[in-house]
Amino acid sequence: HVHLVESGGGLVQAGGSLRLSCAHSGRRFSTTTMGWFRQAPGKEREFVAAISWILDNTVYADSVKGRFTISRDNPKNTLYLQMNDLKVDDTAVYYCTASQGTLSIVAAEYDNWGQGNQVAVSS
Fold first, then answer.
1. What are the CB-based long-range contacts (under 8 Å, 24+) for 65-73?
2. What number of CA atoms fall less than 13 Å from residue 107's CA on the CB side?
3. Are 26 and 2 in contact (CB under 8 A)?
4. Which of 5, 8, 25, 6 is nearest to 17 (CA)?
5. CA nearest 55: which of 83, 35, 30, 81?
6. How far apart are CA 106 and CA 58, in angstroms?
7. How many CB atoms lie within 10 A of CB 106?
8. Cα–Cα distance for residue pair 58/52, rounded to 1 Å
9. What angle do CA 70, 56, 32 make, to 5 degrees?
10. Burial of 27 (0-12, 13-18, 19+ CB in 10 A)
11. Rg, the chain, Cα only
């Protein structure tokens, strides 16, 4: 069973930056598609970004494109989400997730989820 632990969230002013990290406990991190989703109060969970294990291909939600960067460090079994120019609408609990499938923006195609990490952006 894969265990995912997020860290790096917190409170930041609009326009600021945060970097989320996700530690992957399994032995297959280097061949696992990884992603970030988020859920704001009263809203459904939504896709943020994902990165494949093949050629590190990436995909982003339109709302974060150009501001967020997803990356991975395979020797450290760690996934990152660099978030710049944060907006109040980015406030949410952010979830790290893993899939043995191909790159996807669909939550149901991910098999393992972290516990979530709160990001709050103030105006």
1. 70/34, 70/35, 70/36, 72/29, 72/34
2. 14
3. yes
4. 8
5. 30
6. 14
7. 11
8. 6
9. 90
10. exposed
11. 13
Per-residue pLDDT tens digits of the chain, which is 123 residues long: 789 999 999 999 999 999 999 999 978 898 899 999 999 999 999 999 999 988 889 999 999 999 999 999 999 999 999 999 999 999 999 999 999 999 999 999 999 999 999 999 999
Q: How many CA atoms within 13 Å lie on the side-chain side of 97?
A: 25
**DSSP per residue over 42-77, as a string?**
TS--EEEEEE-SSTT-EEE-TTTTTTEEEEEEGGGT
- Which residues make Cβ contacts (< 8 Å) with residue 58, sequence separation at least 6? 49, 50, 51, 52, 70
Is-contact 37 95, C-beta < 8 A?
A: yes
- Which token pair is 21? 């990290």
